[in-house]
Every structure is written in C-alpha cells, then in structure tokens.
Design a protein that fits this description.
The chain is of the alpha+beta class. It is built from 13 helices and 17 strands. A hairpin with a 2-residue loop joins strand 6 and strand 7.
Length: 425
C-alpha cells in the first residue's frame, strides 16, 4: 500500500490497465449483423462463440402496432433502420423520425439446426419508454404499457431476461415500442441472444459489477463523511462524501436499474427526476471539492457559477414534466465540459506550484474527466463506444482516498507522543 502511494506512475499505469479491461466489450469478436431484417446465425456456435447482439437493419413500421399473428407479413414492405438507435437520430430516404410516437420493429432469426429444441435466452435492457416483445406471435416480455398516445401508455425501465425454446430454425421477433414521456424514443441498446446459461451469466455479471461499484463508492463516501465529522479542518471531505452518495444513488437508477428491482412499483416519473437531479446536484459538489483543496488554482467564482446554473436546472427537474426536463441535459453538458476544462487547468497549475497531492489528483481527475467526455459523446450518438465514467469515477475516488491516507500519514510523521499526549512538531 505504501509502495503504491509512493509511486504515482506505477499506480496509474495499473489503473489504466484496469480501465482498458473494463472496456473489453469494445474488442469483442465480430458477430453476424442483421441484414434486410434477417440475422443469419446458421453457422454460429453459441457454446464456442458466445452471445450475439442483434445489431443491424431491423424492419420498422412507424405509427402502427401490427397484429402479433401476422406481423412479419405486415413488415414485408417496412423500412430498414439501423438498430440499436434512438428514433431521434434515424433518417431513412430523407425521412426523419421524432422522439415521440410508436412503431413496430421486427426481424427474423435463422438459427443453427442444433439450437432447435434448446433453451435460448434474450437479454433486454430498456426501451424509451415502453415495449412488448413477441416471439413467433407469443407475448414473452413487456415493460410498462406501450400505447398510441400519451394517455394510453405508461413508461417503465426494467431490464429483463426471457427464455424460449425454438421449434424450428426460423424465429420471428417483433417489438411494439412507444414513447410519449422522454425526449428520446426507441431502442438505445441492442438485445443480446445466447444460450440460457450465457445470458443469465451476463446478467449476473453486470449486476455484480454494479453492486461492487455502488459498494466501493458508498464506503468511500461514508469514510470521507466520518473524516469530516471527526476532523472539521478537512472541509473538502464533506462535498466529496455527498458527491459519492449522489453517484451511488444514480448508479442504482442506471445500467441494470437495480433500484427498480428493489422497488418494482416505483414511479418512472419520480425515478427520472432522481436521475437528473443527482447529476445537477453532484457536479457542483465536485467543483466545490476541488476548490476547497486548491482554492488559489480553482477560483471561487467557478464554484458560484456551477452552483447557480445547477440550481436553475435542478429547479426545472422539480417542476417540469419528464418530456421537458429530459431535454435539459444536452445543454448542461456544456457547463460540465467548460467547468471540467477549467478544473483540469487548475490542477495543472497546482502541480506547477507543487501543491501537496496535486499530481495524484490530476491523474485521477483527468482520467475521470476523459471518461465523462466519452459518455457525453456516446450519449449524444457522436461516437460508438460504451459508458465508461463509472469506471473512471471508481479510479478517481480511489486516488482521492490515497491522497487523504497520505495526508493522515504525514500528520502522524509530523507529531510525537509524549506521555500519552500527541504534540505537533
């Protein structure tokens, strides 16, 4: 531990390796794609090659929920659209789709003959904002209530795993999707197909990673809160602990949506407000934390600016409907980028001024900032990666804890014990 703390370069080399391993999904083996509404898996070996994501050209019929018994025939002349992709970013033959509306999506699976009679699994994360899934005309999963209007629909986010046993190599898969409550609509993440064990393991692994992440961030937040309670001079520990708690809550609301498994009937509308409010609350806390550590390099004016702007956005979340306040995040990203650049610049100045712990905090903070930029670009469809900021955050919180640990160790070295009393040298 002490050796790790004394060799910053080795620490960050190790942490960067962990970050690369966390993004292993980007290097996954190339799998067949959906072409013209058909995914050809006749030569795909699930046991050897693993799961496959249903990416490619799905069939789409906008403004219709086709009859489950005749859906594939009804989709014969439908448009081809790249999936996964939200409706707001789809453009086919000069036609652009709105985020609000409803549609039928479908594709045909051509499975290997060896898979007939086996139990297969299908993993669904979530849709914006309600769906029904039919396999060969049978309803096998649903989230919320998809409808043809806002009054007929009910949004819900609840990742699911469904199982089915194909009785022939051909399997028709159809989705009814609707959105009237969020700025985005459609399928943001690909469905994943595999054997029943593979899909279950994938789901369990994702849950385990998120639980560990929440536990790490929560424990570090509690540790910093106790430091603040016991040592009032460590003022930076309070905003950092509150930041950790806010992010731990948001992690529960995102990804595998563990919050909704704990509270299945929790209203989607309140969950969305919590999600956005944690963003607008946590970011100014983070800027405030950096200011308290390096007040000369990270100016107070920047803290006041982020709190003022965040308060406006937070008020919008409290009073506005989801269809309105979900549009605000794109504008808030501008504040995150500008303030983040200024904070990184302040940390560089702190390193130049040889401030205590600045190098360690710059490394973790810069990595966290870059993963945050990745998430912003990915969220807006500008790059095709995956969400990485949670990994960056864990690394950053570890660096901050290391910094606090070294500060405590320095205090111990600068004091002597005389007759049971601690005297500062």
């Amino acid at each position: 531990m002490l050796l790790c703390l004394r060799t910053d370069g080795k620490v960050f080399l190790f942490l960067l390796i962990l970050l690369v391993l966390a993004a292993e999904v980007l290097l996954a083996q190339e799998a067949p794609r959906v072409e013209d509404g058909v995914l050809d898996l006749e030569t795909w070996d699930f046991q050897k090659n693993g799961t496959v994501k249903l990416r490619g050209q799905w069939l789409l019929r906008w403004g219709e929920f086709l009859d489950p018994d005749t859906e594939m025939e009804g989709l014969a002349d439908a448009e081809l659209v790249e999936q996964p992709e939200i409706w707001n970013r789809i453009s086919t033959a000069g036609r652009e789709y709105p985020g609000r509306g409803y549609a039928t999506l479908g594709l045909t699976l051509r499975l290997p003959s060896e898979s007939v009679g086996d139990i297969l699994g299908l993993r669904l994360t979530y849709m914006y904002t309600a769906y029904r899934l039919y396999i060969d005309g049978d309803l096998v999963a649903e989230n919320g209530i998809p409808g043809e209007s806002e009054g007929e629909s009910l949004p819900q986010y609840l990742p699911q795993v469904v199982f089915f046993t194909p009785d022939s190599p051909r399997v028709d898969l159809v989705l009814h999707v609707s959105n009237f409550h969020h700025r985005k609509g459609g399928m943001p993440e690909a469905l994943t197909l595999g054997s029943d064990r593979q899909v279950l393991k994938l789901r369990e692994r994702r849950i385990m990673v998120e639980m560990i992440t929440i536990g790490v961030i929560g424990i570090i937040g509690l540790y910093h809160l106790m430091i603040y309670v016991l040592r009032k001079k460590e003022k930076s520990a309070l905003p950092f602990s509150l930041y950790c708690f806010a992010i731990a809550l948001r992690t529960l609301l995102m990804g595998e949506r563990l919050w909704y498994f704990l509270f299945p009937d929790f209203p989607w509308f309140i969950g969305q407000k919590l999600d956005y409010f944690t963003i607008y609350l946590s970011f100014p806390m983070l800027v405030h934390f950096f200011h308290l550590l390096y007040s000369r390099e990270v100016p107070r004016r920047l803290v006041h600016l982020t709190w003022a702007v965040s308060a406006v956005f937070g008020l919008l979340v409290l009073v506005a409907p989801a269809s309105l306040f979900t549009k605000s995040l794109s504008y808030y990203f501008a504040l995150i980028i500008v303030s983040g650049v200024l904070v990184v610049y302040g940390l560089l100045r702190a390193v130049k001024n040889r401030r205590a712990g600045a190098r360690l905090l710059l490394g973790g903070g810069l990595l966290f900032f870059l993963t945050g930029i990745n998430d912003i670009l990915y969220n807006n469809g500008l790059i095709n990666t995956t969400y990485l900021s949670t990994t960056g955050l864990v690394i950053f919180t570890i660096t901050q804890t290391c910094l606090l640990y070294t500060s405590d160790a320095a205090d111990e070295e600068d004091s002597v014990d005389l007759g049971g009393r601690r005297i500062i040298k």
